[in-house]
Amino acid sequence: MDWSLLLTQLMNGLQLGLLLFLLASGLTLIFGIMDFINLSHGSFYMIGAYFCGSIVARGGSFLVAVLVALVGMFIVGALIERVIARRLYRADHLDHVLATFGLILIFDAIVHIVWGPSGMAIPLPAILDGQVTLGSLVLPTYRLVIISGGLLVAAILSVLVTRSRLGMMIRAGASNRTMAEALGVNIHKLFLIVFAIGATMSGFAGMLIAPITEASIGMGNDIIIIAFVVVIVGGIGSIKGAFHASILIGLIDTLGRSYLDDLLKIFMSLDYAETAAPALSAMLVYILMAVVLAFRPQGLFPPAGIRA
Amino acid sequence: MTRPLLRTNGLCKSFGGIVATDHVELDILPGIIHAIIGPNGAGKTTLIAQISGALKPDAGQIEFNGHDITSLSSSRRAQLGLARSFQVTSVFMPMTVLENVMLAVQGADGHSYRFWRPVHKDSEMLEKSMGYLQQVGLADRARHLAAEISHGEQRQLEISMALAMKPRLLLLDEPMAGMGLEESSRMIRFLAKLREQTTILLIEHDMDAVFSLADTLSVLVHGSVIATGTVKNIRANPEVQRAYLGEEHA
Amino acid sequence: MTAWFPSSISGRCYCVLLVLLAVAPWIFQWTDQPFLLDLLSRGLILAIAATSLNLIMGYGGMVSLGHAAFIGIGAYCVGIPAYYDLYNGWFHLGLTIVVSAVFALLAGAVSLRTRGVYFIMITLAFSQMVYFAFVSLEEYGGDDGLVIYLRSEFPDFLTMQGPVALYYWIFATLLLTLFLVHRLVRARFGRVIAGAKHNEQRMQSLGFDTYRYRLTCYVISGVTCGLAGMLLGNFTGFISPEMMSWIRSGELIFMVVMGGSGFLFGPLVGTGAFVILEQYLPEFMKFLNPSWLEYWHLPFGLLLVLLVLFGKGGIHGMLSKLDSRTRQSDR
């Protein structure tokens, strides 16, 4: 077995997992607190990438671009909450699906109008573009940046949720909305902040990935579905669940793609394993979600206070 | 001695650390109205939910008509003749009163894998359903939407649906909840007449109703039955007075 | 209520609509607009799929965000045999029915253990599984899809060859589907489905094993949608996993809601609106400003948001408002 390959794959899986966490943590809070299915949460991912890209293109440094774009994302999120999302909380889930599906089309079209149909490459500053040697392992520097960026946000979020007053309100809202309201939480303000923070984190994920994949229209539409898988597997409304499930799914997806064929070869013919492995590995995370939903519908780490 | 229609044997249920049902032993004899009373939070609704199959008990058995039904789903229990009404009115609001009862008649008929014939042309079913509505005095409301009729009428509809199941045992969870004085007394008269048709397990807060209707009373306190007997016996029982009636008079 | 001709305005509209659809190929031949026949054929295929979704979603309250999987399954039940030069139509038809039914049974058996938003997500998961399964099947074109060179072969009196013959296949399937749903929802079975939509616990207390009824309903819907996929494969002659992406499933939901969820003709009308928008909105944008051609998703998305915020009941809802208004003025 090639251990350095395995280690590289583990790092890839961790990277995917942390990106997923940036999307899923906001999604799960919006889902858990507002009971709102936001399919267009992935559009923030795309918009974040384009914001960051345009600032870099105008000569801004990558770091400054990220910081400015984060502020921009918070404003975009707050705006969408005030203008559209707020009117939808009380509607049923079918309406959420439809309206936010419409929002995806709108966002995609706006990006198309503003930035044109082709993607936007974001060059990395030289300092991040190199490679780092860790023992026998050679890793792109930027991969470590993504991983540490993701971990940093996870840490900040965890402190915010467990230690701050806002976090207390968020936890109260996620486990029992009516109770939170009765305790005098300003629910409108809470919703606005949660939504905007969610949009910001989703945008941050987009900014992190864009230098690798470039920013493109519809880039959020595939990853948002996996983020939903994370939310369901982790338990709706649970940040901790979102974290564990993100890492789990990032690893399963990455490792599945590289090692499933070897695994299958153990108990089926070579030809058959090579046909089945790609199909099965692409299906793995969805199979995981179906199994979790069938046997533990409240997710693996439901927020405290929610009865199964 | 007649065999009980329903018997619970060491029934237990707890949520987290809270014991809601604590080794409940109940014998419901056929042909009577058996009422269960108890202070708020005594576990009456939890008990009904276990008998009807909405909740699984942690331990103990439920026997109905000589069969062990503990592991049966609520739909199977309903097919065996265990009908219930709900504490919170749960008729089908967007359907008409008649359609509501027709569903119950359909349920009593067994399976409904009939894909072709429209129900509104099924004259036998229509007649049967109108019959049940007449029985509770709702025939003139048949074509109204269930959402349009008064709360009291909805409660009556609820009971008429349970009756349309042709139950051997009728579980009534606070049938008088939210009713006015006049509506309540009409309901009491109606339930009294039902005694000839079916056995009733009644959960009710309204003490006047319970005392005038029940043949047998069981008192539930903190999840366990502390006494069972006739109205007269229960009224005289000092333990009951302390635990329950005393509380109310205090 | 006269039996042969509906008295309401909306009912009359739908009758006229069906008659128009029946004679449409003649009109288009006469006016020499083969393109419109193509557009209509595609629209009616989607209408079959949307009607099948309406059965579980509109009547049964089971919102599926994965119904396009059945379209893909049906299409590949034509495409894969065709890849091996098997063009027997009865075989295609039988395969479509069996495979969609089996998939619906398996996916439904798991999905229907869940409710509400979980159901939405698990149906999505199953359709993604099918989607990725076909993406990775290199043998059948993977991402790039398959070309079907010949249509399913049926005996002469049932032939699909030629655009008009195929159109009548589609139209007949749509009529059958509409009639099936019409009977189904009024029969005992349909009443149970409707009851379970509103209050499942109550239905169980009335002795209905709602899970099994819902599963049956899901299978009927899945097979019907599979048939739409079989027709779509024959119609386009090109199939790819893209047909079953979750975006397609979202569009199907849109079609149902746009027309009026839970009404027989809602999906047909909604699909019509969808196809017309998809076809003519770009041209309209181009008319406003030639460089706007590609921006048609913007007004389309806005329309969706507005539909949810203000358009309760869809197009059918507006028509029925018209009905009640005229009925009031009759009095």
Could you describe the 3D structure shown?
The complex is a heterotrimer of chains A (308), B (250) and C (331). Chain A is mainly α. Chain A has a domain at 8-215. Chain A contains twelve helices and two strands. Chain A has a two-stranded antiparallel sheet with strand order 1-2. In chain A, a hairpin with a 2-residue loop joins strand 1 and strand 2. The mean pLDDT of chain A is 87. Chain B has helices at residues 44-52, 74-80, 97-108, 123-136, 151-164, 181-194, 207-213, 231-236, 238-249, and strands at residues 6-15, 18-28, 33-37, 59-64, 67-68, 82-85, 169-173, 199-203, 216-221, 224-229. Chain C is an all-alpha fold and 331 residues long. Chain C has a domain at 34-244. Chain C is globular, with a radius of gyration of 20 Å. The model of chain C has no long low-confidence stretch (mean pLDDT 89). The chains are: A mainly alpha (308), B alpha/beta (250), C mainly alpha (331). At the B-C interface, helix 2 and helix 3 of B face helix 6, helix 7, helix 8 and helix 9 of C.
Give keywords.
heterotrimer; B: alpha/beta; four-stranded antiparallel β-sheet; globular; C: 331 residues; mainly alpha; two-stranded antiparallel sheet
Low-confidence stretches of chain C: none
Tell me what portion of residues of chain C adopts beta-strand conformation: under 5%
- The stretches of 5 or more residues of chain B where confidence is low (pLDDT under 50) are none
Gap from first CA to last CA of chain B: 39 Å
Query: Which structural class matches the secondary elements of chain C?
Result: mainly alpha
State the helix count of chain C: 13
Total beta-strand segments of chain C = 2
Number of helices of chain B: 9
Give the fraction of residues assigned to helices of chain C.
over 70%
Question: Which secondary-structure class do the elements of chain B indicate?
Answer: alpha/beta
Q: Portion of residues in helices of chain B?
A: 25-40%
Average pLDDT reading of chain C: 89
Order of strands, main sheet of chain B, comes to 6-7-8-3-9-10
The order of strands across the largest sheet of chain C is: 1-2
Largest interface: A-C, 44 and 46 residues
SSE pattern of chain B, N- to C-terminal: EEEHEEHEHHHEHEHEEHH
The largest sheet of chain B, given as strand count, sense and whether it forms a barrel, is: 6 strands, mixed
Helix-strand topology string of chain C: HHHHHEHHHHEHHHH
